[in-house]
Specification:
The chain is mainly alpha-helical and 506 residues long. It has three domains: 1-28 and 99-252, Butyryl-CoA Dehydrogenase, subunit A, domain 3 (Up-down Bundle), CATH 1.20.140; 31-94; 285-502, Orthogonal Bundle (MetI-like fold). The chain contains 21 helices and three strands. Strands 2-1-3 form a three-stranded antiparallel β-sheet. The two termini are 37 Å apart.
């Protein structure tokens, strides 16, 4: 790391560490606010008593003694109101100071207590005895909280020390270790600040009011220092890229994993919360599917025939159409291509009624061909293939094939298709996913139970009016998604090859 960048790094690290010793939050005395509700209620009593008095005086039907009693009642209620207002004014003057708190050396003011009403409402402390609020505060909130703060502080200090020890080296393991410690410190510091703002404080004190300047010093100072470090050291930058990519990968995998895990859990467990650990109800959920006429083999066969049949036709004929637009410069070429682009803009739901009537007139209702043959006209796939050919096809290859006496169909099949394999694999995956997950169109066309696809069967699982078995629904979703995952992994290498091929410049 260069000397100038290292100095910048150390300055901002010092700012972040210094911010941890400055007052970051204030717990104001909230007595005035807590009295507002009582004042509002008392004001209502005063108004009610005064209204009753005015009604008696205007009516003239009450004796002077009753009216005097009512006057005394109004005066009494007004006195109580004045007393509450005086208490609120006194509390407002005292609330300006409040209780200050800094992350380090770190002890929340002893006057603060946990608001047990919030604790019980959101079930924050189920694992401890609710009787002792003070002990709950110390055991659950404070000890782990202080530990996070001290670990964040230690990570910042160690990260700075390792950068200094690395000296002027361009590559060192110390830099890599420092970057990981620094990242952990940033995450823990951010968590500590957010947790502090959410700490359920019991009246008369309100929740923490954060000092924006100190928060900026800690978070922005550490983040800027981290950016200076990562940008200045190659191996640290590469390590953080790996960390970021791994984080995105986990983020993408977690929903699928939760779906698979829920397929092995009971409905009650699913309703109670999320779990990453598989359960023991897989056989039970499978039996529920069987009891509800969920025939996996029938649904899988129908979905596979429709999805793969339509994909093959869509990919092949769309590639042929895109090849025609690219190679044959005939009159009206651009106009027809514009028509194809216009078709992309039309949602499928708009043409749903007309499509159904057309299939009905062809007597293709309750016929898989109604979902296979029309997929030949795939405007989006034509557009993708044409753009791919624009970047990767040399017309000299076609001209050379013609000179050698090769026919147009043979030229397309033997020369053009091998070039388009990465693009065809990409659009093939998209077409399979779209056709496999299609629910609306099969619902319109199929009434025969023997033609139901997997999405139709899964949707019917939610139709139980007595009890919805979420475990069986997740199992059905898992069975539906599993073939798509297999298809993706089977063709993913072609997608990578397409990206690599598109990046080659002659």
């Amino acid at each position: 790391m260069k000397q100038t960048r290292k100095i910048i790094y150390l300055i901002f690290m010092a700012i972040a560490i210094l911010g941890m010793f400055l007052p970051i939050a204030t717990f104001h005395d909230n007595s005035a606010a807590s009295l507002s509700v009582d004042i509002e209620k008392q004001q209502g009593k005063v108004d009610s008593a005064q209204t009753q008095l005015d009604r008696w005086i205007a009516g003239g039907k009450k004796s002077e003694a009753d009216i005097q009693k009512q006057r005394d009642k109004v005066a009494k209620e007004q006195a109580k109101l004045d007393e509450l207002v005086a208490q609120q004014n006194a509390a407002s003057g005292d609330s300006a100071s409040g209780l200050s708190y800094a992350l380090l050396p770190g002890k929340l003011p002893s006057e603060l207590e946990v608001d047990m009403q919030v604790v019980n409402q959101y079930k924050l402390y189920d694992q401890w005895n609710m009787q002792d609020a003070k002990r709950v505060s110390e055991e659950w909130n404070l000890n782990p909280y202080y530990l996070c703060v001290w670990i964040a502080f230690g990570c910042f200090v160690l990260a700075a020390i390792l950068v200094v020890l690395a000296g002027k080296k361009d590559v060192s393991k110390l830099y890599t270790i420092s970057s990981f410690l620094h990242l952990i410190g940033i995450l823990l510091a951010a968590y500590s600040i957010l947790r502090l703002a959410a700490f359920p404080v019991k009246l008369p004190y309100g929740n923490a009011t954060l000092n924006s300047l100190v928060v900026i010093m800690i978070l922005c100072g550490s983040i800027i220092a981290f950016a200076a470090h990562v940008q200045g050291v190659h191996n640290s930058k590469r390590s953080m890229i790996y960390v970021f990519c791994s984080f995105l990968s986990v983020l993408a995998i977690i929903p699928f994993w939760i779906m698979i895990v829920n397929a092995t859990r009971s409905t009650m467990a699913i309703q109670q919360g999320v779990s990453l650990i598989p359960g023991t109800y897989l056989q039970y959920n499978w039996n529920v599917l069987a009891s509800k006429n969920f025939d996996v083999s029938v649904g899988f066969m129908n979905s596979a025939i429709i999805a793969f049949g339509s994909t093959i036709l869509s990919v092949y004929f769309s590639a042929m159409t895109a090849y025609g637009f690219k190679v044959y410069q005939f009159k009206g070429n651009k106009f027809l291509y514009a028509v194809v682009m216009a078709i992309i803009m039309i949602p499928g739901q708009v043409t749903g009624t007309g499509f159904f009537m057309f299939m009905y007139q062809l007597h293709w209702v309750n016929n898989r061909l109604a979902l296979i043959i029309p997929s030949i006209a795939a405007a989006g796939t034509v557009f993708f293939f044409r753009q791919y050919l624009e970047a990767n096809l040399q017309l000299s290859l076609v001209e050379a094939a013609r000179i050698d006496g090769c026919g147009e169909i043979r030229t397309f099949n033997r020369i053009i298709l091998p070039i388009m394999v990465p693009a065809m694999a990409t659009m093939g995956i998209m077409a399979v996913i779209g056709s496999w997950n299609n629910y609306l169109t099969p619902l319109m066309l199929f009434t025969d139970p023997g033609l139901k696809t997997l999405p139709m069967m899964v949707q019917e699982l939610r139709g139980d009016i007595y009890r919805t078995e979420f475990g069986s629904i997740y199992l059905g979703l898992t069975l539906t998604a599993l073939p798509l995952i297999i298809v993706y992994f089977a063709f993913s290498k072609f997608i990578i090859a397409g990206v690599a091929l598109g990046g080659v410049k002659e």
